[in-house]
Amino acid sequence: MKGVVFAGDRRVAFQDFADPTPGPGEVVLEIKASGMCGSDLKFYRAAPGEAAKSLGFSSTRAIIAGHEPCGLVAAVGSGVSEREARVGQRVMVHHYRGCGVCPHCSTGWMQLCDEGVAEVYGLTGHGAHAPYMVVPARTLVTLPDELSFETGAAISCGTGTAWGALKRLDLTGDQTIAIFGQGPVGLSATQLASAMGARVIALDISNERLARAKEFGADVLINPTETNAVDAIREATHGLGAHATLDSSSSSEARRQAAQSVRTWGKACFVGEGGQVTLDVSPDMLRRQVTIIGSWTFSTVGQAECATFVADRKIKVDDLFTHRWKLDQADEAYKLFDRQTTGKGVFLM
């Protein structure tokens, strides 16, 4: 089969790979939708081999990209019970493989494996930008019948990551949240927070993305290049600041503003990968009792909860996608996505 590989320096390649077969405890998925995630761009832009090294991996073998898999179980290996997986089952994938038995893995947090993450699909283990993919059965999360494969792909990382961050913030419907960055994760957070009943302040330096945030439920729009973000958030919250903030941009300035724009006893959550932030500890944190939270994706349990929430409330997650591609359009797709001015893309098989 053909698979899409990040070849380094903003290049993709199509390479031949053997059709996968399931080993003990594994299943093969027929991929129906494979999402494009903002974190892909770090690996797409990196020099050859550098992306894996940044996460502590030294593998130099060609890896199929894509860590937002959704599809059908096509084959089941030995030792997999029908309760775990069955041929034809509609599933998403939790895109990490850990040891499977430590306290974190056994509670669905495989990315926090006590032995170290064995694989990150799409980076150190073959991902979903291909017709088929093999994964441990324990990484599967059932896709509700009401949801499309595209929605399942989004929940498998971007939308699921937004859900995980909102749950870490304990967001409630009577609160106001300011969400910095309206890329795929930030826009998902806007959509989910609005569905939870919260008042959403959306921030982005792109007016095009802010317009989309309005469509997805944002109540207040702020472009930090046109106004002082902290002042604007306080003005929109009776001078108090937001109850919670979420940064999905990875911008050091946005993170600083996220901490400064919460009210006393507020919570700021950093979900964007990489980068740094400098805070003046006393005024930015201590003297206002501010809590800073880091949130790294979600557990298998959280992924299932997110899917149920989306299905029960009929949230139009599919609307996140502005572009739908075939695998042979991967070069064009990532060149467009790299501009970071559009919405989310997905490959459909």
TrEMBL record:
Transmembrane segments: none annotated. It comes from Hwanghaeella grinnelliae. Residues 8-347 form the Enoyl reductase (ER) domain. Pfam families: ADH_N (PF08240), ADH_zinc_N (PF00107). This is Iditol 2-dehydrogenase. Belongs to the zinc-containing alcohol dehydrogenase family. The lineage of its organism: Bacteria, Pseudomonadati, Pseudomonadota, Alphaproteobacteria, Rhodospirillales. One of its GO terms (molecular function) is oxidoreductase activity, acting on the CH-OH group of donors, NAD or NADP as acceptor. The keyword Metal-binding applies. Its cofactor is Zn(2+).
